[in-house]
Write a structure and sequence with these properties.
The protein is mainly alpha-helical.
């Protein structure tokens, strides 16, 4: 199993703090961006296999992540 990047870890922590799931996050991103997003894509972003800047920006907005997480280079 490939480990999460720093960004992936921060997103998962934020989801736990909000008591929300990755499915919820995928649905929120899809609704905001009109782009189909599923849990598989989120996992690929979290491990650094996909960049998906538009999706990553939506994640940061939805979870209100701080600037250092938004700008992290994984």
């Amino acid at each position: 199993m490939t480990p999460n990047t720093a960004f992936g870890k921060e997103v998962k922590k934020a989801l736990i703090d909000r008591d929300e799931s990755m499915t919820w996050l995928a649905n929120e991103i899809s609704a905001r961006t009109s782009t189909y997003v599923d849990v598989t894509l989120l996992r690929k972003i979290f491990i650094g296999e996909r960049k998906a800047k538009k999706v990553r920006a939506a994640i940061c907005d939805i979870l209100e992540l701080p600037e250092e997480v938004r700008n992290a280079q994984d």
